[in-house]
Design brief:
- By secondary structure, this protein is an alpha/beta fold.
- It has a single domain (59-281), classed as Rossmann fold.
- Helix content is 41%, strand content 12%.
- The chain is built from 11 helices and 7 strands.
- The protein has a 7-stranded mixed beta sheet, with helices on both faces.
- Helix 2 (24-57) crosses helix 10.
């Protein structure tokens, strides 16, 4: 009898919850609670199996386009460590990164660089490329500098503070150029091809974040569709079987360890239709950093 009453109560609560989801603010609140729950599960799994994973992984990225990159202090800023070491972090973007490495950009601009996963990873893959890494968080900027030194690319990585349209416009861009942007919604202010004119000819990978009152994908598409070919990259669930270091963990632990705090709007891959100075700049000599 008690079981029947409990099940009835649960069903009633679910019906109320589903009706509440029709209210935008309550829907956003439910998403936030779900994300915080996933993050709590991640840290709980780290507490249970972290030592085991530390022994298996060490401090080096295992796979993906940045395999071999060192995390000297095992510090991440605004994200989780194990997906980066495993090579599962933002796996959806790996084909874009591979295309970027194949093209051989002369300038990389990383907006919201955190500890340097993309800034240092691309600097290692594109030896001699100039990297401008913008990171407002002092802890992130410090970790980024440590990563640059540990991976022998400090001489070609400039660690800067917060990005503004003014300091972006003034960057000394050599073509071709790539922007990697993950700045928690500030992309709608910073990725302005009117105020930052060189963006019209740069390729851009941007994580898209919700901004109140606008459709974020549509807003960015409208800005760039005349100058860029626009692709949407959707968020996908991780397949833990691709990472043998997780084989001995329980299924719930594997999923929790692979947790990433990624906006559900995913990413946009904006490829410039024209890069007028690209051919000329390919002839500019670059000094290689030490191996």
């Amino acid at each position: 009898m008690l079981t029947k009453a409990r099940n009835s109560a649960i069903l009633g609560a679910k019906r109320v919850l589903w009706k509440a989801m029709r209210v935008p603010v309550l829907f956003k609140l439910a998403r936030l609670v779900a994300e915080e729950g996933a993050q709590f599960a991640h840290f709980a799994a780290v507490a249970e199996v972290g030592k085991q994973l530390d022994s298996a992984l060490g401090s080096t990225v295992r796979r993906g386009p940045f395999a071999g990159m060192t995390y000297p202090s095992r510090v991440t800023v605004g994200s989780t460590l194990y997906p980066k070491l495993l090579g599962s972090y933002e796996r959806e973007l790996q084909p874009c990164i591979e295309q970027a490495v194949a093209r051989g950009y002369h300038t990389i601009v990383d907006i919201g660089a955190a500890e340097g996963y993309y800034a240092i990873g691309l600097a290692r893959a594109l030896r001699g490329t100039r990297v401008f890494a913008f990171e407002a968080n002092p802890a992130g900027a410090g970790a980024l500098q440590d990563m640059a030194r540990a991976n022998h690319v400090a001489d070609c990585v400039s660690v800067l503070g917060a990005a503004t349209v003014e300091n972006l416009e003034q960057l000394p861009i050599e073509w071709p150029a790539l922007v990697v942007c993950d700045c928690e919604g500030c992309e709608h202010r910073l990725l302005d091809p009117v105020r930052v004119s060189w963006l019209r000819n740069a390729d851009i990978i941007v994580e898209v974040h919700q901004l109140h009152g606008i459709n974020p994908r549509a807003e960015l598409r409208q800005r760039f569709e005349k100058t860029h070919d626009v692709s949407i990259i959707e968020v996908r669930r991780r397949d833990s079987s691709l990472y043998p270091e997780l084989d001995r963990l329980d299924p719930s632990q594997r999923e929790a360890i692979l947790f990433e705090r990624t906006d559900l709007n995913g990413w946009m891959w904006l490829r410039a239709k024209a890069s007028p100075d690209a051919e000329r700049s390919r002839d500019v000599p670059h000094q290689l950093p030490p191996p």
